[in-house]
Write a structure and sequence with these properties.
Structural class: alpha+beta
Radius of gyration: 20 Å
Largest sheet: 3 strands, mixed
Number of strands: 6
Order of helices and strands: HHHEEEHEEHE
Strand content: 25-35%
Shape: elongated
Number of domains: 2
């Protein structure tokens, strides 16, 4: 089918006065105006028709198992260089990040949606240090060591579960119109 084998570059100009959104806002469904503009563009250019259905997917819940291990973000403190010091261990550091944003980033590493169920509010300084020996292919290795690292260093845990999510289904699409 053409839709699986062809790539397209779509360029669009966002109208002046459109609210500014982050990638996380967009992914989390918190950019309704931008999402509607993108949907309209795809409907117009590809004659795209979408359906929606609910489906159960495997997810991780990010939960708090030990209070007091998260370090609150202090905007007056000078940012640390990244990585903060030379190390034989792979390090991930985030400054001024909310738990919802952190869960979203963990989703990228874990190849599975991570939902923030910590109840922690505010912004945090997070530094995760992974064991020695994961330098090569550390991302794959990080997936297997992420849960113990989170538990030990942040007092957080990834719990495997299932959750309902809305799924977009392509019902119809055509090759795009020209500019």
């Amino acid at each position: 089918m053409w839709i699986q084998g062809e790539l397209y570059e779509v360029q669009a100009i966002i109208p002046a006065g459109t609210p500014s959104y982050t990638r996380t806002d967009f992914v989390d469904g918190k950019a309704p105006k931008l999402q509607r503009m993108l949907q309209n563009l795809l409907e117009d250019r590809f004659n795209l028709k979408l359906g929606r259905e609910m489906k159960e997917f495997p997810v991780y819940n990010l939960v708090m198992i030990k209070e007091g291990k998260l370090q609150a973000f202090d905007p007056s403190r000078a940012p640390k260089p990244w990585p903060s010091e030379p190390s034989d261990h792979p390090i991930l550091e985030f400054s001024g990040i909310s738990m919802t944003q952190f869960a979203s980033l963990l989703s990228e590493f874990m190849n599975r949606r991570v939902l923030d169920k910590t109840g922690a509010t505010g912004r945090f300084e997070i530094a995760l240090t992974f064991p020695t020996g994961v330098e090569s292919e550390w991302l794959r290795e990080a997936r297997t060591t992420m849960s113990p690292v989170l538990e030990d260093q942040l007092g957080l845990k990834l719990e495997s579960t299932k959750a309902l999510a809305e799924l977009l289904v392509i019902e119809h699409a055509e090759k795009p119109s020209e500019n």
